[in-house]
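User: Could you check the structure of this?
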Amino acid sequence: MAWRYIAQDGLIEIALSDVPGGGPRCSWEVEPYMDGIVNVLQYAVDGVAQQQQATANNLANVDTPGYTAQAVDFETSLQQALSSPSGGTASVAVTADPTARASDGNNVDTGTQLVDAQKETLQYQTMVDMLNAQFRLISGATGGSFS
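Assistant: Sure, the predicted structure tokens are below.
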């Protein structure tokens, strides 16, 4: 999957698409009256959700011989895209976890995965809280309630 971050003419777009093959595609475009932080937070929520899915898969396969744990990274790419003055591309990278394998060929470390699951839950909750705060600000700025 690839993310595209473009900032121009007061609009910010972040789009997700399967490459190649034209699979599912989601995109967000910020209207001029909205803050681009909403799109960045949405991307972060989606990235953390993918991390949670990978962690859940890893834990579900803890006893599967030969299973290779997966790791998901979106933060590095997002930081690079946001640092670029003209925007950039952010992608979600799913890689094999380099943890050493046990005698059955499985490399899932239950302790590490449980810690990751807790960390991802807290990150997800924080990002959703931040999104909700942005929506309250937008609502208040457009004549609605700030609460």
